[in-house]
């Protein structure tokens, strides 16, 4: 990925990002206060919750086919759930409330959230995800960021897919001078400020990192939840996937003739209505992200710092690919 700033200086993602090496063990010390920017919890969901999510979003699950996910013409699509306001209406509501409660324990700004927006990805090892800022309706009209964003990894094979890249870069501000890599691990939850630039580094093939890329047909499967004070739902008039749709509960599901949400609908006994208490009892393990010495570097100028840049390009002209 290349950047051309106003000062006509060209920058790209650093070699440290693109040629990452997956360490054998996570960092033991929080260098530079990384936990203020990125929180990682391993074993985030109870086993039965996690099993439900793995089944509903498995690479062969109807979710991907019924949304035409692998069709190049299909754009971004997501669903919105209300937080609080009575008992959960589905098993997925219970999962989202559990994630919200986990996040609120150390990132209290998420307590202001009234809505949760979720989406999912299922991609091969070599496929990354463009650097972007999470925004309502993909930033059309105006850019509005969520309070907090989160990712939970659903696939078991840790050799599949590249790491998630987090930065401290905000829209309209200077280029990031700090960044972190989070490597995939089953049932690992990552949460971070919803206004920062982030993406997924493509999985490496040879020369270190995730060289194998998993078994043939293996996919990197992730479930993302953004927490909002307010977000407008946008029902699709023609039934096609789109951003911030209302979640199709039983009546809507029957009318649409879809099957993908069936395993997510039943409210499970024993998961508890008190999500905060359940999250406290779960006691997932805190893990540190891998800090980067630099996110950007100059093209043609070895390891030149980026602090001298006057500012990044316009939102619509950059941050759209590796």
In which order are the strands of the major sheet placed?
Answer: 13-4-5-12-7-10-3-14
Instruction: Say what the CATH topology is.
Output: Jelly Rolls
Helix share, percent: 10-25%
Strand segment tally: 16
| Principal-axis shape | globular
Overall structural class, as computed from helix and strand content, comes to alpha+beta
CATH class: Mainly Beta
Q: Overall pLDDT, averaged?
A: 84
Q: Unreliable stretches, pLDDT < 50, 5 or more residues?
A: 1-8, 302-310, 317-322
Q: Report the C-alpha radius of gyration, rounded.
A: 19 Å
* Helix/strand order: EEHEHHEHEEEEEEEEEHHEEE
CATH superfamily: q2cbj1_9rhob like domain
Structure, explained:
The chain has 322 residues and is an alpha+beta fold. Strand 8 and strand 9 form a beta hairpin. The termini are close together.
